[in-house]
Amino acid sequence: MNVELIGVTPHPEKLPAMAAMLTHSKATPQDLEKSSEKELNTVLSHVMKLGHTSVIEHSNFTFAISGVSRSLTHQLVRHRIASYAQQSQRYVNLEDPCFVIPPKIKKQTEMKKAYEKTMQVIWEQYNKLLAMDIPAEDCRYVLPNATCSNIMVTMNARSLLNFFELRCCLHAQWEIRTLANKMLQLVKKEAPIIFKHAGPCCKTKGYCIEHNKNCKWYPK
Amino acid sequence: MNVELIGVTPHPEKLPAMAAMLTHSKATPQDLEKSSEKELNTVLSHVMKLGHTSVIEHSNFTFAISGVSRSLTHQLVRHRIASYAQQSQRYVNLEDPCFVIPPKIKKQTEMKKAYEKTMQVIWEQYNKLLAMDIPAEDCRYVLPNATCSNIMVTMNARSLLNFFELRCCLHAQWEIRTLANKMLQLVKKEAPIIFKHAGPCCKTKGYCIEHNKNCKWYPK
Amino acid sequence: MNVELIGVTPHPEKLPAMAAMLTHSKATPQDLEKSSEKELNTVLSHVMKLGHTSVIEHSNFTFAISGVSRSLTHQLVRHRIASYAQQSQRYVNLEDPCFVIPPKIKKQTEMKKAYEKTMQVIWEQYNKLLAMDIPAEDCRYVLPNATCSNIMVTMNARSLLNFFELRCCLHAQWEIRTLANKMLQLVKKEAPIIFKHAGPCCKTKGYCIEHNKNCKWYPK
Amino acid sequence: MNVELIGVTPHPEKLPAMAAMLTHSKATPQDLEKSSEKELNTVLSHVMKLGHTSVIEHSNFTFAISGVSRSLTHQLVRHRIASYAQQSQRYVNLEDPCFVIPPKIKKQTEMKKAYEKTMQVIWEQYNKLLAMDIPAEDCRYVLPNATCSNIMVTMNARSLLNFFELRCCLHAQWEIRTLANKMLQLVKKEAPIIFKHAGPCCKTKGYCIEHNKNCKWYPK
Q1: A155, A65 in Cβ contact below 8 A?
Q2: Which position among B196, C21, C89, D167 has the lowest Cβ density within 10 Å, counted as fewest Cβ atoms?
Q3: Is the CB of residue A111 less than 8 Å away from at least one CB of chain B?
Q4: CA atoms of C204 and C171, how far apart (whole Å)
Q5: Is A83 helix (H, G, I), strand (E, B) or coil?
């Protein structure tokens, strides 16, 4: 899995701070642009603490993601307040095997071998179908959920907070949780105030959305 | 593929007609409710002809869909102005093989046999992993795009018009096009004025969004 | 203010319960439709308790609202996961004065008189401009926020829960809070399980989103 | 009216071009980032011509707007695929008169005087109510649609194209059309390929969405 942050709204913490000030002030946006960094940061910290997150919608983040499974992307694109561009299995011939192996399978040598053997059988069949002039869009019916995909995602900071709440949770599946954690590391550097307390609900709001008392992160 | 319409806003053409009248009238919604059916239908036909489709958002349609592939559902859930509930491959053990066969493969006996053989290998591996206590959410990495899924979808009429425009097009993939055509047949019965001219762009707007002059439906 | 519920998804608690069952079951939607009411209600109560509210998006509610101010509608239409149709001040001549009086002004006789006098001045000017062939869309620049408006709103149950959380709060403005409370009473009758705990955050989640310790509802 | 573009996704035409290439290629986003500017521009021009505008959602634009009426903002916030922060009439005392005058009123001296006189009466009443300790949120009921407001808006390029289509149209109201035209001038400088053909439907698609044959822009 490779995750890069390839686009960020310039000054991703200034715009939200200005937005917050704008709502409660006589000042025009033109005036507010001249606010000191300190003032802007104080305001932003305050609204984040209050949970008034509508203002952080003004900052957007674009990620380039490669080497993730179609299991992951099928979950990812369920987040509707976001924009996506994904490698198409209709238009791209994927004749070279490329697949994700779940860690629990990877660590058991025999099981891993059997898994890889199945992948080999699958791709042989995929390539056979391609060779018989079946269009890629039909050949792909044999391809597994494990198949690697590339995807670009743009989300605003408010949608990201929701994404992290759900997907950094230990209840989330390992692969999308890994992605979410990598994304969180990347945006924290760009917008430390906004994402200071980002993460699973237990860390951010102090309660477990899964009501799972057996979870090691369950709040005491 | 099984598609049923299991939920429809009552009077799905009355509410949009009232909405259209409300915007241009002194009358309250309470007054407008008493309009004759004929009057309501005339107004709705008029706004549909003008393409002022915001009013048809007030009517919603819920479909129960089963026996479709995960290829299809991955495309379907990209439509963001909609609500979904899909059978989870994390929580449901899918030990019995259940998969879609593309028509181009189905009609060639040898190819179909080879396809089915691959499916058998896949499910054997899936069940082997399950038997070795690998959680279903990891076992599913071997499952193919062809795997059957169940999904419920709710869309409003405006979002449906857009769905039909894109997915009833001959450029759309055969499986989602089949679904779109079935959905269109179902909603046409419930809301004949709204969906009178629904379908691919060439039929509804007289031009080809794919600019594909080789398409048999390309407008003369 | 007049608020009516003029459209509801039939069986607004059955569809969400089916949606919840669908995600965790091998059963098709067709099978699930046959579930007993008791079973469906148990499932729905459970998911509502867990806060897994995506399934309640499948139920939609349409309200006809009249006699509310443009102050209110400007706030209302900020809720983006909803559909609206509003009386237009561009196309409708509003020559007869019709306005909302805030309770704090209404209860003080002198103040109320002065308020009504201002409204009279405003409408005289509005009608004078109309008489001089200024188009309604320009005449309306003099009309006050208090001007009565009619609006139709459709929201799904999940969006409504969010609406109630924000607008039933004592921090919300009195007029939109009155509307929210009326809407809540109406939907509770139709979907008692879904809206059992609906209301301001302090009532539903036990904490104050405004962090306002001076509020009489502040959780002890 | 003052409109400034205060935030733009860096390289607002590169990300969409990469997104377009990603969907049809084996290349990872990391590879695609190295594409030449010429190649990226060619791809983007091509997809824009085809109308495949989902890729331009990855570029976002933030505008700071001041000196516009509440008539305008009430229309503006109806565009739901966007983020807003608006000066609150609940929290900000607007004791100094500040209002928009429609051009048709402005150009007739007597009418303008009468209009300004009404505004004076309104603000006197507003300030009287404030002085009697009526909260600003109630005092504002007398304020006119003409009242000046400040608002920040973020929209992605796809949503902007739709906004321009509807609001640059001669059928749109003069004030929001003025805003739309100013916004279009600003974004054209930043993303000339994306917005090359942006504007009202008659200019972009060659037909009139209002079916108004009397319009001077009606396509021949």
Answers
A1: no
A2: B196
A3: yes
A4: 15
A5: strand
* 3-state SS class at A64: strand
Query: Which token pair is B33?
Result: 């409710």
Q: Inform me whether the C-beta atom of residue C22 falls under 8 Å from chain B C-beta atoms.
A: yes
Encoded tokens for C113: 């008189």
Q: Of D70, D140, D158, D167, which is the active-site residue? A: D167
CA distances from D81 to B129, C66, D158, D163 (A): 44, 26, 9, 10
Nearest beta carbon to residue C132 from set D90, D111, D125: D111
* Lookup result for tokens 């743009």: A154
Tell me how far CA of residue D23 lies from CA of A155, B67, B211, in angstroms: 18, 27, 19
pTM score, two decimals?
Answer: 0.96
Of C88, A130, A172, C144, the C-alpha closest to A183 is A172
Angle between helix B37-50 and helix B14-23 axes, rounded to 10 deg? 70
Test C111 with D122 for CB contact under 8 angstroms.
no
Which of D97, D146, D157, D98 lies closest to D123 in space, CA to CA? D97
Please confirm, yes or no, whether A167 is among the known catalytic residues.
yes
Q: Per-residue pLDDT tens, chain B, 220 aa: give them.
A: 999 999 999 999 999 999 999 999 999 988 999 999 999 999 999 999 989 999 999 999 999 999 999 999 999 999 999 999 999 999 999 999 999 999 999 999 999 999 999 999 999 999 999 999 999 999 999 999 999 999 999 999 999 999 999 999 999 999 999 999 999 999 999 999 999 999 998 888 888 888 888 999 998 8
Rg (CA), chain C: 22
Structure tokens at D174: 């003069």
Angle at B172 between CA A134 and CA B101, to 5 degrees: 45
